[in-house]
Amino acid sequence: TGHNFPEVIEFRDRIAEDPRITLHVAAVQDWIDSGAIQERPDGTRNPLQTVPLVETIQNRNYDAVLGGARRDEEKARAKERVFSVRDSFGGWNPRRQRPELWGLYNGRHQAGENIRVFPISNWTEADIWDYIKARNVEIPDIYYSHDREVFNRGGMWLTAGDWGGPKEGETVETKTVRYRTVGDMSCTGAVLSDAATIDDVIDEIRLSTTTERGATRADDKLSESSMEDRKKEGYF
């Protein structure tokens, strides 16, 4: 989006140095510069990702695209299948979903369509951290407790940046926080936390009563059907 956390981009670029990986970046700024999309008044670019995403899938003729969405995160994602058929415009129609009995998946699709595949759809946040611990998976440090300059907006601790925050009257403070989920800086809230190790994070999650998106994603609060509306337009 151009408003991403530097720690995450640095981690991505380092992983992409592996010669087995080819990194293709579809930058929202390129579509803004071309006039294809316009900046939003609220400064967030997260909803603007849809057009670059759909056009990149079409231009590169991808049959399937992997995503990390899970059913326990959000109600629209709770309805979506592991293999999610998207039309030629990238849109999701819940009525077109296919049965997935006994772990059998149907990847057949028409020309121009694609499949969004969510391999960890049935996992929980705790499952993921158990896996990270068991497999010693490397992740960005942003998921662990650290000191950060943040400001409070609508009950969420957001990171200041060139996306338009903070506004007048919003005070920047240094807090000990971590991130449970990572979008871009304009819509992802930190949680106050002292969980500095994997075991600390796992213990914290066991006691949590809200999902990571429910607690920290401002883009899911634009409307009651915000995520489903975006999926119908082509969003992950």
UniProtKB/TrEMBL annotation:
InterPro entries per UniProt: PAPS_reduct_dom, Rossmann-like_a/b/a_fold, Sulfate_adenylyltrnsfr_sub2
Keywords, comma-separated and alphabetical: Nucleotidyltransferase, Transferase
GO molecular function term, any single one: nucleotidyltransferase activity
Gene3D superfamilies: HUPs
Bias-annotated ranges (Basic and acidic residues): 214-236
Protein name: Sulfate adenylyltransferase subunit 2
Region span, Disordered: 209-236
Location of the Phosphoadenosine phosphosulphate reductase domain: 1-189
Keyword Transferase annotated: yes
A Pfam cross-reference name: PAPS_reduct
Organism: Candidatus Corynebacterium avicola
